Structure formats: C-alpha cells, structure tokens
Amino acid sequence: MISAPDVVAFTKEDEYEEEPYNEPALPEEYSVPLFPFASQGANPWSKLSGAKFSRDFILISEFSEQVGPQPLLTIPNDTKVFGNFDLNYFSLRIMSVDYQASFVGHPPGSAYPKLNFVEDSKVVLGDSKEGAFAYVHHLTLYDLEARGFVRPFCMAYISADQHKIMQQFQELSAEFSKASECLKTGNRKAFAGELEKKLKDLDYTRTVLHTETEIQKKANDKGFYSSQAIEKANELASVEKSIIEHQDLLRQIRSYPHRKLRGSSLCPRESEHIQDPPSQAATTSDPEESADTDHYACRPSYTPKLIKAKSTKCFDKKLKTLEELCDTEYFTQTLAQLRHIEHMFRGDLCYLLTSQIDRALLKQQHITSFLFEDLVEVSDRLAEKQESTVSKPHHYRPPSESPEDCLVPQVLISVGSYKSSVESVLIKMEQDLGDEASREAAVMESSSFDPQENLDYLEMDMKGSVSSGESIEVLGTEKPTSVLSKSESQSSLTVPLSPQVVRSKAVSHRTISGDSIEVLSTCPSEALIPDDFKASYPSAINEEESYAEGSQGAIHFQAGISPPEAGEAEEGSSGLALLQTDASCCIGREAGALLVPLSTPGHTLSDEDGVVSVPPQRYRQKDQGFHVDFSVENASPSSRDNSCEGFPAYELDPSHLLTSLDGSKTSLDDHSDATSYGSSVASTSSDRTPSSMPPAGPSSERHKKRAGQNALKFIRQYPFAHPAIYSLLSGRTLVVLGEEEAMVRKLVTALSIFVPGYGRHGKPVKHWLSSPLHITDFQKWKLIGLQRVASPASASALHALSRYSRYTSILDLDRKTLRCPLYRGTLVPRLADHRTHIRRGSTYFLHVQSMLAQLCAKAFLYTFCHHLHLPAHGGEAPELAASRQASFLQLTLGLVHEDVKVVRYLAELLRLHYTQERRGTSQPALRFDYVPSFLYKI
Amino acid sequence: MLRWLIGGGREPQGLAEKSPLQTIGEEQTQNPYTELLVLKAHHDIVRYLVQLDDSRFASAGDDGTVVVWNAQTGEKLLELNGHTQKITAIITLPCLETCEEKNQLILTASADRTVIEWDCGTGRQVQKVSCFQSTVKCLAVIQRLDVWLSGGNDLCVWNRKLDLLCQTSHLSDTGITALIEIPKNCVVAAVGKELIIFRLVAATEGSLGWDILEVKRLLDHQDNILSLVNVNDVSFVSGSHVGELIVWDTLGWTVQACERNFWDPSPQLDAQREIKLCQKPNDVSIHHLTWDEENVFVAVGRGLYVYNLPMKRVIACQKAAHDSSVLHVAKLPNRQVISCSEDGSVRIWELREKQQLSVEPAPTGFFNMWGFGRVNKQASHPAKKQQENATSCSLELIGDLIGHSSSVEMFLYFEDHGLVTCSADHLIILWKNGERESGLRSLKLFQKLEENGDLYLSV
C-alpha cells in the first residue's frame, strides 16, 4: 500500500534554522502569488488551508482482520470537523505504520498459546497530500474470537499543523497513553469475563461429553470402543486441552496487572486499586482454582451452553465492536479522556506553548501569584492536581481504574518499550547504513539488558520487534539507553550520535520526500516492563523523542550533525518543516542547557563524551514549556522524576491551557527565548479560524481585554489616575461613586486589575453597592462601586463615606474628582502612562501583569530577606532593623516615596498568605495610614 | 453637595459648629493604631468588655450572649449562651490560690434575673442562680473573704459555690447602681442619691453565719450617683448625674475636704449659675471615672477632666472632648488617656505638663448649682490657684479612632494587643499597632520558614 514511504529523520535542527526562510531567490519574493483561499476569508498564514478538515480531531481506527483498516469513530463526532477528509484512506495510512508484532499463538517451546502483552507504539506521521499530520498511538486489544486473540487499533490525533504534533509529542503521548491504558484495562476485564464464560461453556461441554462417554461405556461392555466412542473420547480430550489452554490464558490475563504491580512499589495506590476489581486480582494466586470458583461466583446469571470442541477460533463470526471489547465503564472513561485530549490540544500551537511556558513560570512564583494572577488558575491548580490525577468521571466508582492508575502503568510500560525499540533500531541501522558501529552498539545495548530481563519477557519483546521492520523504514525510533546501568547507557549513547548516522538519515529523508507518507518518529512497540526497570521508568518516557538520547546525548548529537544538515537543508522543501521544528527545539534545549543546575541527583554525566552537561533539575521545568515536544532533558531518570512531581496533571488540563495567556512572568532571558520561539512558530503555524481557538479562552480572554481597554481609557482620561491606582496598590479602598451603574461597573472592572488579591477568595472587589458603607466593607473590599442616589437616603451613605474618609479614596465619576492621598512615586507612572503607545486592551493588560509581577518580585524579596526583619543579634534595637528595611527598600529595590508603601502592603499580604494555615482564612486586618487626602479635579 | 468631599473633616459640620470641638486632621503621626479588625458576633448592643487574661477577653451585651475572644488574632473562641435577656453586669471571678485549674470563671448578671457562672476555658455553664427578685445591676467580688455580692433592689452576699449567705432588706426600687469594696469588710453601694455603707460579718464558730449590716448612709450627693470608684486605700470617689464629684475617706466615710464643687474654678458664681441653668443636666453627668496614682479622670458630659487628688483641683480639662457624652475613660501607662463616646469615636489624649500659665485652657465649663454654699471656700483660693496653675497640665488630642457607626460603649486596653472597643452597632473592633503587628507577622513568617526547613536551605 505504501509504495515508497517517505521516512524523515527525526532529528533536531541545528542553528541554521533560518536557512529555509532564505531559500527563495530574491526576485521571486517580489511576485507573491495570491493566496488561493483569500476569497474565503481564510488566514493567509494558516497552514491549515491545505488540509481538508477544519480543525484537529481524534480518529480511532482498527485494522480489521476481515475488512482491513477502517475508521471507527472520531472525536469530536462531527462531520463538519473533518469535512471531506478521507478517513478511510487515512486509517489505512496510520494503521500501516503499526509496529506491533501482535504475534500470538503457540510460540515454539511453549505448550500453550501465549498472550503477548504488547505495549503501545507511538508514531508521528505526516501525509503531505492530505495536509494532515498525526500522532498515532497503536494499541492492541484482546478478543477471544480474533486471530491470535488480538485486535489492533490505533488512536490518532490528526492536525494540519506538523509543529503541533511534533512539539506536543510528549503531552500527546502521555495523554493518549492514559486513554489507551484505560481502554486496555477495560478490555482485559472484558477479556477475562469472556474467558470465564468460555471456560464455563467448556466445562459444561466436558461434563456433557463425559456423561455421554460413560453412558457409552456402560452401553457396551465388550471391552472395545466403538468409533463413536473413540470420537467422543477425542472430543473430550480436546475439550480438556481447550480448558487448560483457556485457563492458562485467563491466568495470563489476570496476572498482567499483578506483574506490573510487582514493579510499582512506587505507587501504592495502584496496588490497592489492582486489588479492587474483585473478579480479577484476588484470584491471581491460584488461577486454575479461581477460574472455576470465581466464575460461578461472579457470574451466576450466565448459563453455560454446549459448544463445539473446535470452536476456539471462529472467523465466520461478526467481530466484536470496540464497545463490546471493553468494559462499558472503561470505555466511557476512555472516550471522556479522548474528548479531554481533543479539548486540551485545541487551538494554535503557539498558544499552547505560550500557555505552557506561562504556567511553568507561574508555578515558580506560587508564593506571590495569588496577588495579581487569575485566581481561577491558582485555585485550579490545587483542584486540578487532584482532579486530573484522580479520576475525572467520578461516577465510575466501582472497579474503574482512575486515570491516575492508568498513568503509572503506562509509564512503566513505556520503559519496557525501549527494549524493543533497541531491536528495531538495530534492524533499521542495518538496512540504512550497514554501519558496523551502530550495529555493534545496538547489539551491545540489547545485550546489556539481557541479564536483567526475564527470559519470558524477552521472548515476547523479540516477537514484537521482529515484525516491525517490514513495510516501512523507520529512522526516528527512539534510541536505546540502558536504563539500568548508567555507565552502559552512556557508552551506548555515543554511537547513534555519530554524524554519519544522522546524515544518512537525512539523506534518505530527502530522497523519498516526494511520497506522501512520512514517518517522522516512532516509538516502537513496547514490551512489558520487567520489574527491575520500574525505578528507571521515567527515562523511558523520553525514548520516543529522538534517537539522540538523554540530555547530554541530545546536545552532543546536535553539535555533531549540524554541518551536514545545514547543507542539505536548502534542498528538499519537505524538510523545511522539520528544520523549523528542530530549530525551535534547539532554542529550548539551549535554554535548558544554560540553566544552572541545582543538583544532579543520581546522574553523573560522563565527560568523555565531550557532552554539554545538562543537569537534571527542577529548573528544567521552566523551559520545558519551550520544548515539551521532544524535550531531551528529561532523559535522566532523576529529572523525569522531578518533572513528574513538578508538572502535575493539571498542566494538561484544557481549561488551564485556555485561561492563561499572560506570558508576563517570564524573566528576561526566558522572555526573549519565548518570544523568538513563539514568533517563529507563529509565522508557520496554523491559525486557520478564530473558531479554532479554545472555547473557554475567549471569555476570560475577552474579559481581560476589556478590562485592559477600559483601564487604558481611564488612564488617558483622568489625569489623577496615578493616585487612584496607588490607592489600590497600597490597599486603601477606592470607592467609585456614580449614579450610573453600567459606568461604575465598567470602571470597577477595569481598575480591578490593579487590586491585589487576598488569597483564595478572589479579588476584594465589590462592583456595585447601593447601601451605606460600613467599616466592615473596607476590611472586606478594596475597590467598591457605590451608587449615588438622589434621594435623601443617600445622605446617610454620603455621611458614612465622609465619616470613613480616612480609610478610603473616593473617585466621583459624576463630578470627575478624586479624593485621595498624594502619590509621588515612580512606579505607577510606569504602570499607567497616559502617553503609552499601547493601544490594545489585551496588550495593556499584559503590560500591567508584567509590571505587577516585577512588583511582586520586589515584595517577595523584601518579605523573605530575613536579615531585614530579624534582629541580627539578641540585643539589637528594633530601630536598626527598621532602618535596614528602609534602606533595602530604597537602595536595593529602588523605591521612592509612596512606592515603599505599596511594597510594604504587598509584603504584608504575602506574610499573611504564607503564614495562614489552610483552614478558614479570615480577612486580613484593615490597615491604614493617617495621611492627609487631597482633592483632585480634572 | 461637594462639601464633604472638599472638607476633609470627619465630623459632621453641624456638630462641629455647636461647640469648639477639638478636631485633629487626617494626619495623626502619634496615633499608633493603624490596623483594625472588626469582630462580629453579637446581634445587639455590646456593652461590656472584660479582660480574662493576657490574650483573652469576653464581651457581653444586650443580646444576652457572652463571647470570648482572642485579643491577638481576633478569633472567636467561645460563645456562651444562657441568658434570655440583656446582660446587665459581668465580672471575673478570680481563681482560688488552691485551685488547680487555671480556667477563668466569670459571673454574668442579666435582666432575666439570673446570674450565671461560666468557665471561660471550656465555655461550660458552671452554675446558675435564678432566685433573684430583681435584676442584678452590679456585681462585686471580695476576694479577701472569698465571697461575691450582687446588687439589685437588695444586696446579696454569695460564696463561691453560689450559696446565698445573707442579704439585706429591700433597699430601693431603682436598685444599686454601683458597688465597691472598702477596707474593714465594708462595701459601698450607690443607691439613688445615697451611698450606703454596709459591713459584712463573716461566719465564725460562734456566730450564726454571715450577716450584712447597714452602717451609714452618705447623703451628700444631690442627684443620682452614676459612678463610684475605689481610688486607693484611703479614698474613694463618686460622681453624680449633676456633675458632683466627691472624694470620700474610706475609713471615716467622710467627705474629704474641698472636693464637692471643684468644677467651678471661676469666682463669678452668678454668671456661672446662669450659664449652668441653661445647660442640660446630661451635659454634666459623670458617666465614668478612672484614676491613677494621683489623678482622677472624669468623664463629665461631653468633656474630660483631670482632677488631681493631692492638689484637690482640676488640673486639665477638655470640656468638649467629644460630640456627645463620654461613656468610658481610661488612663494608659504612657500618660495617654483614652475616651470613648456616644458619638461613635474613640479619642486618644495625652496629658502634657504645661509650663506657662497663659496657655492654660480655662476650665470654665460647668458649675454646680447646688454648690454655692461653699462658695466662700472656693473664693478664698484664687490667689493660690494662680500659683498652682504653673504646674498644671493639658490634654492634647493625639488621635482618634473612627470605626463604629454608633455609640462606643466601652473599651479595653491590652498592653500587648492594642485596644478593643465595643459599640451599639453590634461590633467589636480590635485596634492594633500596625507596625508592631507587621513585625510580629514577619517573625511568624520566618518561624514558619524555619519550621518548614526552608530558611537555610540555599546555604
């Protein structure tokens, strides 16, 4: 089916990333062809325009043994989404890249059919004709009636944006693994049920046959058996054999979770969970016995029926549907997870990346972020941490494996995968280059595993990998790393990094580029993880990425290959996309490499490789945002561990992705990286329609934009905007007084971006109030919209206002006056410059956010510098500490006049927030100063 | 209409015009209270505050509940519910020395004619007495005898177990408004215009039991006695509705010299009298008295006076200290005087020694219309007074606390935690020194950092 697969080296690009842009000759640039879709109002920058579908979707296909590849369902299940995109054709494409061996049956040396616990493979492929790129996740489900008991399926995330697939590979992989694991767990459950039924049938059949034989025996006492009797006896024997076989299968399927369990002492929850399904785990100790007792106990409703002895494989039957293959609950859960994935990766790549960066950075300032960041996010974070780790669909109480549980097994599994990947690499290497060295390396590597590996598993793995090489050349498999022994892995790392290897891959890619299918990367079928590997599973996650393994490896590799790649980049236009991708990877990687290591736990880098040492450390997470794609850094187990903890599942939640677009927290370095990266992506990536934007985004986004716009208007309109904003920043309640509710609300909303939050309860803003103010209001709210009523009742309101005037600044919208303390600092003028060139509300909002983040950083420093606040020695006078504080604020932080008060106020909030226990948070005390107020008029 | 906006003054204009009320602007550099915490638990006027220990206090009011608070955090510790009507008196019952448990006991009397003993550690209602014929309006504890007294229409003596030891006959329908202990097992009860001195006879082996005997009635006040305090071992002070302040000798129960109409420093009695007659009596009623070693601080109507006991005269005064009646006065250790008033404000004054005679504000405010019988005595002093004026003092307003929207009934000062005020607006406000609180929070922060092991991690 695939005439000449176009295999693309799955490589990182070198520094010459800008080369592709220069490619067209200068004169050609002057003749820009009209954008063919311009008439449809499409975005000329969109790469999606070539694709036949309107936005990304998920496709589930099956390689049916009866009809071949066929699409089963799409998410979203909306024909508008994929339009006239040929699902059948694409199913064929994606299913044909399956690497799984799915070899089952009677393996030599084994008496009984063996179930192959094949792990999923992850492949990225592109179809330039269709304009579609896909992350393809292959998996096999068990079906008693299927050939070899397996049914190959795949889930594909199809997008028109290649970069998105490439750079979100890890996330996609992680998320799809969850879905896959969920589906497979359900399938195992269903399969076990199936087996039990079958066993019952067989048992019943045996009883019947036995009775018949006995009867026959009794019937003729002549001492010889009739042919009929012999036939019966044979039949009985075959039933017996079948029973044993099925019992064995049942044992195997049941021992599956158990085997995994042995390795996962990491995750106690899994064990308890595994015990959960009553029909499964509890019985694993004695499969034979349990098979009998269990199924009677569990499924009393089932009435066994007589079956033909030879009915083990039935090809005439209609194959089970996907739903039937899987336990209903798990199936629903899987669909939910897939929808979740679809939701999560909606939108433009640069948007996804920016929000990832943003989140990663935001996480670093979790201590101060409650002040000005969106509370949704902050609180979400906690909630999500639990929610997405704990099962999303809560109604699947009973035996359901929560995604969390799925997660761990999946990770474990992927560790095992690299074993098989080693093999496939080995094969490819021979084909492609016949490079002795690489072959040796591979051999060496695989041999290095052997000691640790259980022979049984090895056997299965071998099966898996052997079959994978047939139709497609795959260059971009993951490279082998010995997870077990660091030294081994490092020595082996050097091999695939040799320039020749890379070059040859690049060449092959180029020459075949005309073909429509490009296998960009694969993650070969994974084998069950031996227990020993469990500890190192984190590294396995990264195996998929590239064959330059390990952080150090990757960098080394990159350096090595860059010259040849650079030369070749100009040719082969199909390579362009790849180059771009790689370029962006480089940025991220370099950023990562520049980071100062906090620690290098458990992973020492061998200098002999001449490798740039990229320490595995927490700081990584920061840049992971840039190159989550194929982030090489995580390769070392320890760093992966960190990121497992540090990157909680909430990260992957769609609502998260959508809400945050304030990339304001980036430090300078990061910022430049982020922007350059973002821009490069933006220029090439697809933003076809506004509708492809995440749905949750617009609301909050629009809200921010409007707030920013109105704040900008306020600043331009009122010359006394500075003292008003100062009031808000310093915690003095600002009362916006007006007759017209809409106006007041609008301004309150706009100004609320300057109000520091207290903590978990949202910003202390009251948009509209018509009753007289009370002292508690000032404690509760820092920005109040107050109704001015014409009636005499308002007199009391105004009286209260004047009575409490020392606690408030009053902005009178009707009269355009402001009564508040004097402000002479430099901070607010920068924050709210009425001559600013910023025109757009959202831009201004971001500006404010970044300024406030800076301010928060100052407040943080001030709050947490302990020499400022604690006496240097016991007898020190408090005045000394006070003078230290003052000089720190003034000299170190460069704050003048009233700015000091702002920082002091924020510091106060920080202290309160930090010291507050989780329990009921009371409102902070109302702090105020006895300072004179002034009346400002326009 | 914009007047309030420009004015900047926090007092209503109308009131300000009525009298030369001393005001202070928004800039109050000496006012340490820059942080406040509003405590909300009561549903009616909060009238009483009582300190339990260094960090706790109890509040009680017309809603019949008693609430125990943490003075540092403002946390509500306990709510004591037991009375069905408003609480009329509250007092702490000191622990016995022999008593192991440190839990503070308090007694509360209510208009439902009960007295309840509470354990403030647990919130438990220890005991309840409900055999009263009338509302108990005041409570007093005589620690020396380990008894407590309740004053309503009669005076009852109770022991710690809440057994009635003895009681007087019906004294008056208005009841006892104030009760203090004086030496020689005597107590002074203010009943209407009279001060009645009772002697307690403790039970001994020979006697039949406790007894309480009326010893003397002091009839010198012309009007209802509103306040009565025990200043020191040798004297106690009473103040009446018409502004009489009398210093009594605790031993002889006699009026000490020259104290009755000291309010009139001016020799022109006739003029004073006319002015006096125009004044509403409320303007001169003595709502509260407090004292330190040598001065008695008197809340007279809207004004605040400082009476020096050794000199037997007023040394400083603010005749218009507040917009309306001053309800409570307290002297702080640092020469500060705090007053609260029906106008909802709390003011902080500082007693400053004045060196120059000329600057002395003339305390000409009010005059006792019944006091001219002693005019001669007063009149003979002017020359002497002139000299004494050289050492007199003044009350300087150094800050005011605006928070309550209604009359501030009482306040309580904690050395370490600041000021607690309670008010008819159902609120209690905790006023704190912002700077000190900030420092404390900072310490707490680093303490927590250290506990978490984050403090020295990076080193």
Architecture overview:
- The complex is a heterodimer of chains A (938) and B (459).
- With 938 residues, chain A is α/β, with parallel strands linked by helices.
- In chain A, helix 30 (775-780) links the parallel strand 9 (765-769) and strand 10 (783-787).
- In chain A, helix 6 (169-219) crosses helix 9, helix 15 (403-432) packs antiparallel against helix 16 (436-449) and helix 19 crosses helix 21.
- Helices cover 51% and strands 9% of the residues of chain A.
- By secondary structure, chain B is mainly β.
- Chain B has six helices and 31 strands.
- Chain B has helices at 3-7, 13-18, 269-278, 375-379, 382-388, 434-451, and strands at 33-40, 46-51, 56-61, 65-70, 76-81, 87-93, 105-110, 115-119, 124-129, 138-142, 147-151, 155-159, 164-167, 176-182, 186-191, 194-201, 211-218, 225-230, 235-240, 245-249, 286-291, 295-300, 303-308, 313-318, 326-331, 336-341, 345-353, 393-402, 408-414, 418-423, 427-433.
- In chain B, a hairpin with a 3-residue loop joins strand 14 (176-182) and strand 15.
- Chain B is globular and about 75 Å long.
- Chain B starts with a helix and ends in an 8-residue tail after the last helix.
- Mean pLDDT of chain B is 78; it is low at 1-19, 264-279 and 357-390.
- The A-B interface holds A 774-776, 779, 798-806, 810, 812, 815, 817, 819, 863-864, 866, 869-870, 878, 904, 908, 911-912, 914-915, 922, 925-933, 935 and B 2, 4-8, 10, 12, 25-29, 31, 34-38, 40, 73-75, 399, 402-405, 427, 429-430, 432, 434, 437-439, 441-446, 448-449, 455.
- Chain A: Keywords: Autophagy, Cytoplasm, Guanine-nucleotide releasing factor.
- Chain A: This is Guanine nucleotide exchange protein SMCR8.
- Chain A: InterPro entries: FLCN/SMCR8_DENN, Folliculin/SMCR8_longin.
- Chain A: Belongs to the SMCR8 family.
